[in-house]
Structure formats: structure tokens, C-alpha cells
DNA sequence: AAAAGATTTAATCATTTGATTAAAAACAAA
DNA sequence: TTTGTTTTTAATCAAATGATTAAATCTTTT
């Protein structure tokens, strides 16, 4: 019997094109023909390899959700690092990752908005925000303030510049290189700011 | 000659429905039939009053951009308020406004991402972030740190919870009421945090 | 009331779009 | 080479969708 020997290169070309186009334009604005063109393949091949636009999207989306939330999972659950160390690691991990993939947060957030039912409890991020060891450390340090406030502060200050990238560029505030410089600076600043906030 | 006497009520019903549907699903995922149904009108009326889906969208979008950026314009340009006062006003204005319109930022940001060319320099927000009196006050206070860092901090901490609302709800971290409570708390906290950050 | 104009409706168009099909081409096994 | 299998292509389909049209209804003016 002959093994399935799909040309992995073609399949991967389609998936890569799908990543690009879906992330750039979102599910609804993406035409399967856009993906085919981006991949340099015949339209029918998309269905041959992935059955449907939706199936292909789910594949890409699952990847992107992992990328976005996977960053912090190992950090916030560690029992070996201090509070301050965790903040340093989180900020650094997010800014480094998003510099390579700036469209990621806006993509994931807007697709979840468009179809909240579809994601249901598939997102385990909830537990990271409410049950991780990081949360315990925050409560220990500041029992008077809900830990989510600090988590939102750290994430927002790290991620927000990337979410607003399209506006910053359209409005001529920054170009792509300047944004990277700016967020690189923030790696150190945010940690410093966190330290004074947690004591304030 | 008889004046054009369009039934303003119908026109407004369509515009209102368009606001709802466009904001919820974005331009591409919105069908003109969705808007017609939401407005309770015949599909053809949409074109009768607004020519095309795109024209209607531009109308709504212009409104939404104003809502989103109009909030801060009068505050940051005032010469009568102190730095701290401005921060208090900005945070309060945004959180109050977004509590009534939580989907606004994600909508505007993702539409600009989908079609950056289209917005070009139509967004005057750039000047608010680079040339306002608020910026001068920030530089005066902390000439060593780019003022945009502080502006991003204030805006991100205020707006980010609303951007992530769909995730927070899907993941079961918070429901809508809890989010309002949470952001209401932040009105005071963010100002406090800003004060220690600007001194740090 | 009659005429003129504005608004609304049902039906229909043309295009786009996701998907399928049948045949061709490429490849592997014998 | 021959045979069978996988991959690719061009052509086509059916449904969805933005838009238009022509007729019907309602409103205003005279």
C-alpha cells in the first residue's frame, strides 16, 4: 500500500498564505481566492487540502490563540520565580513576540468578538488570570487590590501599542521601526512602573 | 417646489441599525440585509437613503472615530488644567464613555487595520499625541522620558479592559456588570498609578 | 379632489464567492 | 513501460449579496 504522500510543501504554502491573509484582513474580509493567490496555487487545492475556508481558518486560529496565550502560561505558573521576575519575563516575552507578530492581538480579539459563541470555553486563558501562582503572589503582596488590576496593567501596557499600530501608522505618529524602538524601551520601563504601582 | 421631506425617522432607524450591526460585526461580516432587518425596513430603502453599503459605513465610521478621539481633544489642549487634572479627566471621560459603548475601540481599530489607506491622514489623533499642551506638560515634568510612553500608559490602562471584553466574557473571567465595576474602580486607581509613574 | 412628489415594496439583476467536478498531469510501484 | 495513485487544473455550480427597477402606496400642495 502506498502511503499518503501529500506534497507537504503545497499544504504548508496554503497554510502560510492563510495565516498571512486571515491575520491581515480577518475571516470575513478574506476570500479563498485571496489565499490561493497569496499561496500561488489553484483555488481548488485549498478545498482539496483543507475541505473548507472555515476548517482552514479554525486551524490558523487555534495556532494564533496558542501563540497569544501560550506566552504567559509557563511564566505565571512557575513557583520558582518572584513576582518581579515574573513581570520582567511576561513583559519581555510579549513585546519580543509581538514585535515579530504585531497583528496578532487585534486579529484574535476581533475574531472572538465576531463569534464569541464559537470560542466558548476553548480559551483556557481564564484560569491564567484567576488561578495561577502569579495571582497568589499578587494577592499576598497587595490583598487590598484585586489582582486582575495589576495583570491588566502589565498586559495593557505591553500589548496596547501593537493593537494601536494601524492607527499610529495611519496618523503618522510612528512608523514600524519607531514602534519597535518604542516598545523595546518599554521592556525596562514597564517593569519599573509595575514596581512603583504595586507599592503605591 | 416641494422640499425633500424624507421621513427622518426611517433614515435614522437605518443609521441606528447600521451603527449596531457594523459595530458588532465589522464592515465585511455585515450584510446589508442584516441592517435592513435590524432596522425593520425593506432592503431597497437602505440604498434609497444612503446610496450604498459603503457610503452608509463611512457615515457611521466617521461618527465612531469622532466619538473615540473626540473625548480627549478638548482635555489635552486646555491650558487651564494641571497635568494631574488632565489625567483624571481623560481617564474618567474614556471609562465613562466606553462603559456605554464598549465595542467602540475594537471596532475602529480593526476597521483601520483592514483598510489603512482609506483612512490616510483623516485621523487628526496624531496631533493630539504629539503637539497638544498635555504633551508639553509631560515633557516639562519628565524631559528624560518620551511623553508618548505616559500617554500610552494612560490610554492603555483605561481602554484595554474594553478591548478585551469579548475574551474576558468568553473565558468566564467577568461578565458585563463585573467589567463595569472593575473599570469604575480603575478611574481612581489609574490616576494614582500615573502619579507614581511620573515620579519614578 | 386632483396632481405632483416622496416613500416603500416586491421582484429581479449581476457579481462575487465558497465549493465541486471531471479531466489532465505528475508521480510511484510493478 | 504499464498500471494505479496522488496532485493539480480549468470549468462550472449554487448560494449569497449589493444594488436596481418599476410599480404601489402614502404625503403634500394646489
List the helices and strands and how they pair.
The structure is a homodimer of 200-residue chains.
Chain A: H1 8-29, H2 32-39, H3 43-50, H4 53-70, H5 73-76, H6 83-100, H7 104-114, H8 116-119, H9 125-130, H10 133-141, H11 147-163, H12 165-170, H13 176-199
Chain B binds a DNA duplex (30 and 30 nucleotides) through helix 3.
Describe this structure in words.
The structure is a homodimer of 200-residue chains. Chain A has 200 residues and is an all-alpha fold. In chain A, 78% of the residues lie in helices and 0% in strands. The first copy, chain A, is built from 13 helices and no strands. Chain A has helices at residues 8-29, 32-39, 43-50, 53-70, 73-76, 83-100, 104-114, 116-119, 125-130, 133-141, 147-163, 165-170, 176-199. In chain A, α1 (8-29) runs antiparallel to α2 (32-39), α10 (133-141) crosses α11 (147-163) and α11 (147-163) runs antiparallel to α13. The longest helix of chain A has 24 residues, at 176-199. Chain A starts with 7 loop residues before the first helix and ends with a helix. Chains A and B meet through α1, α7, α9, α11 and α12 of A and α1, α7, α9, α11 and α12 of B. Chain B binds a DNA duplex (30 and 30 nucleotides) through α3.
Keywords:
200 residues, mainly alpha, 13 helices, DNA-binding, homodimer
What is shown here, in short?
Chains A, B: This is TetR family transcriptional regulator. The first copy, chain A, has helices at 8-29, 32-39, 43-50, 53-70, 73-76, 83-100, 104-114, 116-119, 125-130, 133-141, 147-163, 165-170, 176-199. With 200 residues, chain A is mainly α.
